[in-house]
Each structure stands twice: as structure tokens, then as C-alpha cells.
Amino acid sequence: MTAPLLKFEFAKTPPQSADCVIIGAGIVGVSAAYWLARAGMNVVLLEKGVVGAEQSSRNWGWCRQQNRDARELPLSTRSLSLWEEMTRDIGADMGFRRCGLLYLSNSEAEIEGWATWGRYARGEGVDTRMLTAQEAAIRGSATGQSWRGGVWSPSDGTADPSRAAPLIARGVVKHGGTVVQHCAARGIETEAGTVSAVVTEAGVIRTRQVVLSGGAWAASFLHQLGISFPQSSVRSSILSVAPGAEQVPAALHTKDVSVTRRLDGSYTLAISGRSHVDLTPGMLHGAGKFLPMFLKRWRALSVGGAQAWRAGFDSRGHWALDQITPMERMRVLDPRPSAKLIAQTLERARALLPGLRDRPVQAQWAGYIDSTPDGVPVIDADIGLPGLALAAGLSGHGFGIGPGVGHLMADFVLGRPPITSAEQYRLSRFKDSQWGKVSKF
Ligand SMILES: Cc1cc2nc3c(=O)[nH]c(=O)nc-3n(C[C@H](O)[C@H](O)[C@H](O)COP(=O)(O)OP(=O)(O)OC[C@H]3O[C@@H](n4cnc5c(N)ncnc54)[C@H](O)[C@@H]3O)c2cc1C
């Protein structure tokens, strides 16, 4: 069983030239291609497997400002309206709803953390409301428990991960762009020190501009070009249960388990932050940079196995451009979920929400979450090779801001003012000694 996903047919082969080539069709790549095509650019979006099939279909679907790192808050606020704008323009339901997000807790420290964040975020214009015990009991009545308190963020929402990226890719085509699936970009050619072409498994595309939005594959791809991108991935396990529990909130977070209603009425269930660390060659190289983050989160992390190493997405080897690459050997990164974690998640969800008790399991899957050392993405057009821009390391919260990240990439490519400030997303921050502030939430 793997994550549900809408699948469409697109172009069979890439053209020989383009104004801009986007590598990787997750939520970031489809969004960048969409905004570029909408601006009239001749854009080609390459996907080695199936549009949206990696992280972007495997997540919970939360599109939140709530508890965002300050560095990402303006982009997340802007992205919520971009979800609405894209939905109107594409004319298909991506499941985006401002359904509000509900957080419940019995921990005084956790509630105080939310209150501190709330004082800051309200100053930034975010509608975030602390809940008293009484209010939490009402909003959380489906749990049948009492709570010390909570937070309600009414303008946040969710979108459906099985629908969003594929439908945005259709939007790219609607605006004249080209989408090619089962077509890996093997590498980049340069002339006079700038990008001149993308080499794919189906031929060469001449272009002056490339956006790399390859998710967990980005660091190994950049390694071929001598560009160091500190990136590491952990494996998260998740499951869904069949529709029919209407009284359960649309999006609820508790320490024990979180639940999210999807467009078809099914629910995804997961334990926030719980992940497995599967060793990769890249992890060995970058261990020092990731130590602060792993130490901060060690309680939620378990030692995994060798499946990431075998999958080859985070290799540090070099490959030839005229031979099959790791991207063609692994069309869709589809790791095995942890059976123990899935069982524990289901047990906790059924204990918390009686409405879920008779809902049968529909699917279970895992996804590799790619992260930077400080838990904030890299979104940067100045990474060491003129003509190549990077958007990766979305660090477990990139689905909700995907439309905004894609917009920023389009802004860079088109040379227009960025929709929000982007200085904080530069790759160069990992070179100086000031970067080490790990994202708080
Ligand atoms: C279990 C789980 C829960 C999550 N929950 C949330 C949530 O609730 N809210 C939220 O905001 N975020 C969440 N996230 C994080 C979110 O899913 C990611 O941050 C986001 O989807 C990353 O998007 P992306 O486009 O960067 O990467 P991806 O979706 O991984 O896409 C990258 C694409 O690039 C392709 N590719 C790579 N290399 C090449 C190449 N050389 N040629 C062609 N194609 C290539 C890959 O095949 C892949 O399709 C969650 C993630 C997981 C796994």
C-alpha cells in the first residue's frame, strides 16, 4: 500500500529547448512551473517518476501559519492566499479549505510555548486564539476528554496531498508549459560558467535557467556540480482510515497523535515528529551540521535501517551523464513504513477519538522528509552556478508553503521583486557561523 495519488498523462518527451527547466515535480516544482507558465515563460517541468509521488503526496496536508518559525511566517501567510488563487484559476478542487487547525494539550509548558508564539504572531496579523480548558473541551468534544488548554487558528487549513501537485501540473499545461514524467534530469551543462543545458535521460534541453526542486535528491544532484547543500532526510510513517467519522475535527494535533480529514472524508493519522533515521552516505558527510537538530529531537527519533542507503537518493558518488543514474533506478522513493509505529499510531488515534474506532485502515505509507540543519528551506538563485536556482530542504513543513516557494522561484527567474523577503533562505547561511538557530517549531 502506498499514498493515494491522482495520476495524469502528460507529454511523452521533452522539447529541445526552453526558457526555463524545472527539475522535480513535487509541490515546489509544480508551483514554480505554474507561476512561470502563467507569466508567459516557455517552461519545462521534468519528473523522474510521477508528479507529486514523493513527499508531496505523503504528507498530512496542513497549510499552517500556526507555530511557524518567524523566518517562514510571511511566506506561509502569503501561501494561504496563493492556494485560493491557484484553485480559482485551475478550476479543480485541490481540497484546500481554511478549516482551522486545532491544537489540544494537557502540558502547561506546551501551552505556554503556544501562547508565546501567539503573542508574536498576532503582532504579525495572524488570527491565532488560545483556548481555555472550557473552550478546549468544546472544540475537542470528539475526544471525550478534558484538556488544560489549546490553540485554534481559524484562518489556517489543509489541502489534499493526493490531488494538489497533479492538479497544479495540469495548471502548468493550461498556461502553455510542458510537463514530462518518467524523465530524469541527469545533470547540467555549462558554457562560459553559466547554465547552457539540462541533460535528461531522453535528450538534451538547451536552456539558460534551471530550478532544482528535487526534494530529498537535491544534495546528491548538486554534489555532481561541486555545490555543497547540507541536507538530511528522516523517514516518517503514516496511515489513513476510511471515511465516515464526520464528528472528528478536520485537523487536530495532540502530543500523542494528529488527525487530518482529506477531501474524500478519510482521515490520515500520524504521530507528530516521530521518525526513523536511516543511514545514507550524505548523512555520514553532514553529521556535524545536523547534530544540533538530531540532539534537539532525539526523543522522537529511532534508529532505522539500510533502506535509504539502498534507495540511493542521498549518495555522494559521481555519475556519468550518458549512463543510467540513481534517479532512473528509483523512480518513486517509496520507503517501507514502520509496522510498529503504524500500530501505535492507530491505537492512539482510536483511544483518543471514539469516532475512529470502527473505521478500517485504508492505506499506510512512509515518506522521507528532507531537511536543512536549521529546519528552514533553501530558496536561492545564487548558489554558485549562474542560471541555477535551488528550492529544497523544506524540512517537514513545505507542502503548505509550496505555492509561495514556487512563486519566489518564479520571481527569481523572472527578475521581479520577490513576494516576500528571501534573504533568510540563502544557501550561504550555512557557511557562516551564525546559522545554527534550529527552528523552534
Ligand atoms: C509524513 C509527512 C508529513 C508531512 N506533513 C506536512 C504537512 O502537514 N504540512 C506541510 O506543509 N508539509 C508536510 N510535510 C512536508 C512536505 O511534504 C514537504 O516539505 C514537501 O512536500 C516538499 O516538496 P518538494 O517539492 O520540495 O519535494 P518532493 O515532493 O519530494 O518532490 C521532489 C520531486 O523531485 C523529483 N526529482 C528528484 N530528482 C529529480 C531529477 N534529477 N529529475 C527529475 N525529477 C527529480 C522526485 O521524484 C520528486 O517527485 C510532510 C512530509 C511527510 C513525509
Total strands: 21
User: What is the CATH superfamily of the largest domain?
Assistant: FAD/NAD(P)-binding domain
Q: What is the annotated CATH architecture of the largest domain?
A: 3-Layer(bba) Sandwich
Helix/sheet category: alpha/beta
Q: Taking all residues together, what is the mean pLDDT? A: 96
Low-confidence stretches: none
CATH class of the largest domain: Alpha Beta
Q: What's the number of helices?
A: 12
Characterize the largest beta sheet: strand count, sense, and whether it forms a barrel: 8 strands, mixed
Quote the CATH topology of the largest domain.
FAD/NAD(P)-binding domain
How many discrete domains? 2
Give the termini distance in whole angstroms.
30 Å
Q: Tell me the strand percentage band.
A: 15-25%
- What helical percentage do the residues reach? 25-40%
Give the cofactors and ligands.
flavin-adenine dinucleotide
| General form | globular
Specify Rg, calculated over alpha carbons: 21 Å
Order of the strands making up the biggest sheet: 5-6-4-14-15-16-13-19
Task: Identify the notable features of this structure and list them briefly.
FAD/NAD(P)-binding domain, 2 domains, 21 strands, 29% helix, alpha/beta, binds flavin-adenine dinucleotide, 441 residues
Your description of this structure?
The protein has 441 residues and is of the alpha/beta class. The chain has two domains: 20-100 and 155-430, FAD/NAD(P)-binding domain; 101-154, no CATH class. It has twelve helices and 21 strands. A hairpin with a 7-residue loop joins β20 (378-380) and β21. α1 crosses α12 and α3 packs across α12. The longest helix is centred in the first third of the chain and has 18 residues, at 73-90. It starts with 19 loop residues before the first strand and ends in a 27-residue tail after the last helix. The mean pLDDT is 96. The chain binds flavin-adenine dinucleotide (FAD). Flavin-adenine dinucleotide is lined by residues 23-29, 46-49, 53-56, 58-62, 184-185, 213-217, 221, 236, 238, 327, 367, 369, 392, 394, 396-400.
